[in-house]
Amino acid sequence: MANRPWIYYGVLSFGLAVLQFLFVFALASTSNVHIVYMGKRQHGEPELVSELHHDILSHILGSKTAAKESILYSYKHGFSGFAAVLTHSQATLIAEFPGVVNVIPNSIFSVHTTRSWDFLQVNPCIADGILAKSRSGSGTIIGVMDTGIWPESKSFIDDFMEKPPSHWRGICQEGQQFNLSHCNRKIIGARWYYKGYKAEIGKLNPRDGVEFLSPRDAAGHGTHTSSTAAGVPVGNASFMGLARGFARGGAPSAWLAIYKVCWSTGGCSAADLLAAFDDAIFDGVNLLSVSLGSPPPLASYVDDVLSIGSFHAVDKGISVVCSAGNSGPFPQTVINTAPWVLTVAASTIDRAFPTVLTLGNNQTLVGQALFTRMDLDKFYPLVYGEDIASLDADQTSAGSCDSHTLNDTLARGKVVLCFQSRSQRSAVVASRTVLSVKGVGVIFAESPSKDVSSSWNLPYVQVDFTIGSTILTYMETTRNPVVKFSRTRTTLGQEISPEVAFFSSRGPSSISPSVLKPDIAAPGVNILASWSPAASSLELDASGRKFPLQFKLESGTSMACPHVTAVVALLRSIHPNWSPAAIKSALITTASLEDQYNQNVVAEGAPYKQADPFDYGGGHVDPNKAISPGLIFDVGTSDYVQFLCSMGYNNTAISLVAGSSIKCRSKSTKFLVNLNLPSISIPDLKQRLTVTRTVTNVGPVNSFYTARVQAPARVSVTVSPPVLVFNSTVKKQKFKVSFCTFIRTQGRYSFGNLFWEDGFHVVKVPLVVRTVIQDFYSET
Ligand SMILES: *[C@@H]1O[C@H](CO)[C@@H](O)[C@H](O)[C@H]1NC(C)=O
Ligand SMILES: *[C@@H]1O[C@H](CO)[C@@H](O)[C@H](O)[C@H]1NC(C)=O
Ligand SMILES: *[C@@H]1O[C@H](CO)[C@@H](O)[C@H](O)[C@H]1NC(C)=O
Ligand SMILES: *[C@@H]1O[C@H](CO)[C@@H](O)[C@H](O)[C@H]1NC(C)=O
Ligand SMILES: *[C@@H]1O[C@H](CO)[C@@H](O)[C@H](O)[C@H]1NC(C)=O
Ligand SMILES: *[C@@H]1O[C@H](CO)[C@@H](O)[C@H](O)[C@H]1NC(C)=O
Predict the structure, then answer these.
(1) Which residues, in sequence order, are CB contacts of 387 under 8 Å at separation 6+?
(2) Which class in CATH covers the domain with range 675-779?
(3) Which listed site, 60, 75, 371, 401, has its alpha carbon 20 to 30 Å from 640?
(4) Same topology for domains 129-350+500-626 and 354-489, yes or no?
(5) What's the CA-to-centroid distance between 477 and ligand 2, angstroms?
(6) pTM value?
(7) What is the band of 537 on the pLDDT scale with cuts at 50, 70, 90?
(8) Taking Cα atoms as reference points, which of 636, 37, 80 lies closest to residue 315?
(9) In terms of CATH, what superfamily is 32-105?
């Protein structure tokens, strides 16, 4: 059982972040939802499985009626189990029942245009590009687990879509403001999951207009991710005039199946999420896009429903793409790290939103903003947040414009300069504070980052600390400092890109550092995509009217995830027989390490340093290269089971995840590094270690590859054999990589690459090694 009954899951973008926090606390005391997990289903008939669940519950609860009232879901397609409202002692009793593998207390998850597709060279005008070759992803069904969908968005018009395939078993589940007519040949399925959420958090009150008990999206997040993955092109799309152009999804001919598991008030229940996995597997999706997660500490792979649900999906050939989290740039913050999922980091694109500030001395400075609505052509008085702190504000946060720190008499009618601080990092909080004291604008100085927050009600410009200090110096040298904002412009191609986004969570994985995470980076900063007009009802324009947004710029690994989802959909249309592991391998080994000037990609956050695999895994996704990777590293279900054995989980727990009875042959940790991943990560090299990998040739039948190594610092690397020859009978080849170090210090991670090259393909395998001293502690 999980030690932490309250894992908080949330969507991984910033818009909802503040609301979600409130819910973490609301949850802790009320839950009694438990997930009773029974492994692979034992009967062919789903109805019999369901009956069995009721029987077990009746036995414990004393009556059939009580069982009926308590059960929320019967999971019967991909695996057997159910979710029910139980007391702790009832849960303990059920855990003893024959056939019950585990009882998991429920937990709460949370969620995570379109220049980005041109930036990635996913463009219909490229003759032999990935869109042409995949027929824009036709034939592939993308399941999206998120906050639902706004079906009227132009991104989901089905004019050129084919009918759903005959094997499709999904449904269009009706509910508030959502009926059968809201599904079409683009949205071929839509379901919603509310029982777990309701049982724990309590009923949503849909009458307040912020939620619909149906697949309809009240938050915007799910509409954004769905349209990024598979929206059809919409011309003249913009965010209040910014970023104007075609908004399009990466796989515009793919079908969408919507699984609404997260709610606009914040959070997604684990019981609901597992039910959605169960249905999606039954319905017949080809891949799943899951832009949500729960922050560290990470639950073990045998207790985390996202890891369990995705294991079953991958076992059935369904790729699962997840967001890496928004807790960067700090190390060991990456989430969703199971080796069978694709974990996506966020990167910047070459679009920017420069906004010129003019000071009273005519000095001009450039910041970034997403504000277009007010007449700005006028100087406003400028004050520093710390100088107008209210008397009871604490010293450290007044300058950062933390909530309730500003004196409203002194702020009224002025532009306030705020500096990000340790305790107050959020530009959004600063702008709310200034708005609440009737300020007219904000300049927020922060660590350099290209992630710009949008603002409706007041101009709000982000600058780096250098520019912030320049402004402060000006203010100190003049009696009546003033500032004028120019209108924000949209520029293309003028930013060095990609860079790994400041907020993107970093590796290594805190639970399994031998599995390199994140896997790959994709655009996730200032992405324009469809939005839910209902979500923006919370936003008022300058004159206090509701402002229904059709499109919105958003940032987060939530936005990066559907980019990779779309690329997986395109690859799947081209290579329908490739396993999820093969597709993942193709993406990682072909990912790019360079920006548009062929310089190494840089990571925001760790100041201007070259990005490393903990920032972006294999690198930045390169869709056209991934079509033809040359060699792939394949992994099957039995390999993942061996991995779980080496993680030290017991047979019972592993049987639970695998859905069948498992007896580990060996629990030796040496298998951890031998999982056949397209990367090698050794967290504890003690002197010498040899790692094995197997590659499968998917390129020309007669191929000849040679190894080239960029060794990590202080480590020598040898590859054996150094050449691999493939022909019509030899399709797979094994090789060994030996690592050796003579260091006698407790090391830090260093990075390198192994390349297999045939003159056309470059199969890049990231190498990550940390040296450790044997018996470090006993020697000191
Ligand atoms: C197996 O592991 C699970 C979860 O890690 C734990 O709850 C259970 O008690 C263990 N069972 C045995 C027989 O050790
Ligand atoms: C479905 O809802 C739409 C409005 O949202 C309405 O026009 C239509 O008549 C409804 N269809 C059915 C079958 O109820
Ligand atoms: C694009 O949309 C804007 C409103 O957002 C409108 O004013 C403009 O006329 C439209 N342009 C075209 C070419 O449709
Ligand atoms: C700023 O520029 C304007 C117009 O160019 C000029 O009239 C004004 O005197 C300048 N102010 C300062 C302080 O240099
Ligand atoms: C705000 O500033 C005014 C003017 O300096 C002062 O009179 C008032 O006490 C301050 N209010 C608070 C709450 O600090
Ligand atoms: C392929 O290579 C293997 C090993 O080099 C060799 O034994 C085999 O005869 C080759 N097959 C063909 C069809 O050339």
Answers:
(1) 410
(2) mainly beta
(3) 75
(4) no
(5) 65
(6) 0.85
(7) very low
(8) 636
(9) Peptidase S8 propeptide/proteinase inhibitor I9 (3.30.70.80)
